[in-house]
Design a protein that fits this description.
There is one protein chain. The chain is an alpha/beta fold and 382 residues long. The chain has three domains: 205 residues, Rossmann fold; 52 residues; 83 residues, Winged helix-like DNA-binding domain superfamily/Winged helix DNA-binding domain (Arc Repressor Mutant, subunit A, Orthogonal Bundle), CATH 1.10.10. It is built from 17 helices and eight strands. Helix 10 runs antiparallel to helix 11. Bound molecules: adenosine-5'-triphosphate and magnesium ion (MG).
């Protein structure tokens, strides 16, 4: 039996309800409300957004969804904003002339029209380019507020009530700037903004411009919801749950509340020893893209345990003579692989730790063991 039904959303009733409550608040107060949805990879941010969208559709509410992964263009950091602005203009046509007409229709002043054209990546005349170049940052910011207000007024006119942006942690600085204006501008009508992001890059900590946003943190899924998901996953793959009880028990134990890891382990050839496929790719990508000092510090941490502290990192910094330890720490945290609680750090998931550990076998640790036994001797002598 191959099941083509969309996967039901298990165990996120509270979070889904919060989205509805905040949405209703935006409508009731005729104001803009912003939600920042955070959680590690695979925890179910996109799944929750999709479930919320199903409800919006059923209630015949208009919304716009942006998944930054689908409009990422690493060669052009402007790509997302340009697409975003064009989508907010709700033009089906893609010709520059038609988009330009729509901009003239939506803009409240000739200057904001010029700036909106620039954001939408339409060609500008030399005179227009020079006009914008003369603007100070402050004046440009004021102009951007007008651009954003014009766009939002238009969306209100078209009865768009929610704008959802998935994977916001992948956005460029320019895109984040645009969104910061969008989510902070005064609105006299109800609109809900939802940004979903892993705790990484610029979203390692909630950014300042989202200080008045409602933050919803997706915790690991509870065991009974994980069991329901396992059951559903097996059936949808033509596997009888009663014949795969052992596999299910192992996958549930290792996934520790992460739905994506559960799904991948259930279908793995060796669920007891393999790492979820996306996790392998993620760790490999991190290790390849991070500076060598960061990689080695991460490997050292993985060799210590799932949890480690500032003192242990300090010992490693001294041993390796790392010149900018704070910078290394910042990069480690913004990788999304570890979290911090005061002086203590943890890998975000036991399997993330396991994955890093499997890459850390080559790291020489005799100096640390030696250091540890010396310290213990000193303590004993006292
Ligand atoms: N509560 C849930 N019930 C059922 N399935 C879920 C649930 N949460 C997540 N899933 C499933 O787990 C997989 C991973 O979820 P999802 O893609 O939403 O994670 P994510 O948080 O968006 O990850 P990323 O940050 O990598 O984009 C998907 O196949 C999704 O359908
Ligand atoms: Mg996602």
């Amino acid at each position: 039996m191959l099941n083509d039904e969309p996967t039901p959303l298990y165990g996120r009733e509270w979070e889904l309800n919060q989205l509805h409550i905040i949405f209703s608040r935006a409508v009731a107060l005729s104001s803009a409300q912003t939600i920042l949805l955070q959680g590690m990879t695979g925890i179910g941010k996109s799944a929750l957004l999709n479930a919320f969208i199903c409800h919006l559709k059923r209630a015949e509410k208009n919304y716009l969804l942006f998944s930054t992964n689908s409009c990422l263009n690493h060669n052009n950091p402007h790509f997302f904003v340009a697409n975003f602005v064009r989508s907010l203009l709700l033009v089906k046509a893609h010709s520059e002339v038609e988009i330009g007409h729509q901009i003239d229709l939506v803009s409240s002043t000739p200057l904001s029209a010029i700036r909106m054209r620039q954001w939408a990546d339409l060609s500008l005349s030399l005179a227009h380019k020079q006009t914008l170049r003369q603007f100070s940052d402050e004046r440009l910011r004021l102009l951007d507020k007008t651009v954003v207000s014009d766009l939002l007024e238009y969306l209100d006119h078209k009865k768009v009530q929610a704008i959802l942006i998935d994977d916001a942690h992948t956005l460029s600085e320019q895109s984040r700037y645009f969104l910061s204006i969008l989510t902070q501008v005064q609105c006299h009508f109800g609109i809900l903004f939802i940004l979903s992001a892993q705790k990484k890059n610029a979203f390692t900590h909630p950014p300042k411009w989202l200080s008045s946003a409602h933050i919803i943190y997706l915790k690991p899924l509870d065991i009974s919801s994980m069991q329901q998901l396992a059951h559903h996953t097996l059936l949808s793959r033509d596997m009888l749950p009663c014949k795969h009880q052992h596999r299910t028990a192992i996958a549930l134990k290792r996934a520790c509340g992460n739905p994506l890891f559960l799904i991948q382990l259930l279908c793995a050839t060796h669920p007891q020893s393999e790492l979820p496929e996306t996790l392998q790719q993620l760790t490999q990508h991190c290790l390849n893209s991070m500076p060598c000092e960061v990689v080695n510090t991460l490997k050292f941490a993985a060799r210590i345990g799932q949890h480690f502290d500032t003192k242990q990192l300090h010992q490693f910094n001294e041993h390796r003579k790392i010149r900018a330890p704070l910078c290394v720490l910042h990069k480690m945290l913004s990788s999304g692989l570890i979290t911090q609680d005061a002086e203590h750090y943890s890998f975000v998931h036991p399997l993330v730790w396991e994955s890093l550990r499997s890459h850390a076998k080559d790291l020489e640790l005799d100096w640390y063991k030696h250091h540890q036994s010396n310290t213990q001797n000193q303590v004993t002598r006292i």
